[in-house]
Amino acid sequence: MRKKILFVTIMLLAAVLLSGCVGSTTWPGLSAANEVAYLANTSAVHAIDVTSGKELWSFVGEKSGGLAIFGGSPKLFVTTPVVTTDGLVIIVSSGNDHAMFAVDPNDIADPQKPTPSIAWKFTDAKGHWIAAPLVVGDRLFAPNSDGKIYVLDLQDGKSVKQAIKVIEPFSESKEQAGRLWAQPVTDGTYIFVTSLDHSVFAIDLETYKIVWHEDLGGAVPGSMVLGSDGMLYVGSLAKQLEKFDPATGKHEPVLDTNGWIWGTPIAAGDNIYFSDVDGYFYSYNTKTSSLNWEPVQPDSAITASPLVYNDGALLVTESGNVYFVDGTGDVKLWHGAPEKGKAYTTPVSAGGYVLVSYIEADYYLVALDDEGDQKWTFPAGK
Amino acid sequence: MKNTNNKTPAPQTPAQPAQLPQGFSTETLKTVAVIAVLVLAFTNWDAVVAIMVNVMIFIYGIVGHNFGLAIILFTILIRVVTWPLNAQQMKGAAAMQEMQNDKEWQAIQKKYAKDKEKLAQEQMRVYREKGINPFGSCLPTLIQFPILFALIPSITYAIGSTPLSLLKLSRSLYAFQDAASLIPLNSKFLWMDLGLPERTLLLGISIPVLALIVGLTTFVQTKLTMPPAADPNDQAAATSKMMGIYMPVMLFFFSLNYASGLAVYFITSNLLAIAQYAMMGKVNWRNLLPGGQKK
Lengths: 382, 295
Prior knowledge:
- The complex is a heterodimer.
- By secondary structure, chain A is mainly beta.
- Helix content of chain A is 5%, strand content 37%.
- In chain A, the strands form eight sheets. In chain A, strands 1-2-3-4 form a four-stranded antiparallel beta sheet, with no helix packed on it. Chain A has a four-stranded antiparallel beta sheet with strand order 5-6-7-8, with no helix packed on it. In chain A, strands 12-13-14-15 form a four-stranded antiparallel beta sheet, with no helix packed on it.
- In chain A, strand 12 and strand 13 form a beta hairpin.
- In chain A, 48% of the residues are buried.
- In chain B, 67% of the residues lie in helices and 3% in strands.
- Chain B is built from 14 helices and four strands.
């Protein structure tokens, strides 16, 4: 009997080891609105009061019908939550349930265990949700890894056009249906969508037709940004920053980079700030069509977008350090990394603090004041 | 690397040659080599994973960007590379089994049933006389652990179904791989997306077909390759019986929740193991029949 128990224990340990080999899933999603931070941190989405660091509520999805181990609907919350003008929070599960929820933080049933009520749920997507959806008026444009963009009515989560499937993205590539991982952007006429199948495309907001699509020669995990010159800028795994005419899709490479460009470039005045996974940070001037200064390399890989801050930018590197780069390209360590942990998520600014999230650390989120000093952590006391 | 370790002298071997069974020094060196390989693998984990990822992606490029086919061919390659180890494992298991059926050994077991120490001494003596290395069947298995453990992240990274796995893939690729054009890998294979757990809709019910096939092939493989036991109540037979139950269940649940690319690996590996055993004449078809093991 003892041997049997030992054997079962060994087998269970082997199962855990095998599962462990798959490693951590991915990095958390972070957003903030009205002094509330929303952190999608694998098992739950937490709403945190930015001023105090206290949790206001958390959301873990609906109770599963069966055990997760039976493959029912394991949930995974890593996509950046989106807050609508009506105060709903759009949360997507990147797990196998492929579920999207609109939750209402104003309707919390149990104050002892606060969790918002579900206003509606959408489960028709066939792939994982990685991209955050884009709110345009009363519609939600939600790109999915199944290569489709679902256009939903924000009121009830129903498909706006022709039941479920709304837009077929560019999928001329025989290999990929086009995994869509980045939140689209809009100029009010079109929405611009990037895809891992190397393509970038514009869709008319009214007709839902693809207006143009272009191949960048490399996967595009980040989104596009509209520069002060009216052009769209985007980076790709082809190690190039590209400039697009939003109306026609005519594009040209403007800069070769050292490594893959992962995060979405950020516009600040005439400058476009962006980084690459080799750890370089670039400041590109759209007026002069050149770099403001030689790229700087603080320490390790950068997947997060920079955060525009005090005439410069804050950079979060994989090592967990936060750097401030001023307008001249001078780099200063602004906040040291925690003892252990890595950072890949784009930081956000809210309530006078800069919020940075980590994986594999003692805490998921830290609030930093304007000196880069820690004000609180979530969970607290770490 | 392995050759270097093979040259490592075992200090006690030349000192007491008369008391050691024939071939003991070679076996000791093999054990040392296996341990060295395991230590090397676990201390250079990222490098092991990177090698596997690159080989798999290289195959993917050759076979027309079909990742399912790449996994199958890669599994075959792994089987070919580990063929001698598997063969040695089978040989070791067969020798141990033979010993269990040996009349002299059975008599010794009966005689010293209450004297464990004496029984252990006698066991070592019989091992020496018959030229059996008690670790002969488990060392080859041990050396395959890093391969299995590295395969899982390799497949997961290669498919790149999450941002972190895609980032890890980028770090694993060697310079000669044309990463920009290869990524993302085509994860479609037959009816499956290899980056997702597989479910097939049959009559409106979502069925994990691939996970069931993993469970079934693991069950069949374990049963077929299980040597017939002289005494079904002995410890080895009981362990084999438990393996026959727990392994399929464990791999079924594993396949249920992880990328179906891993399930493709498990199925291919099981079928190849059956084929290898069959080629070596070690398949025990009777085990598939109810009560077949007792015969």
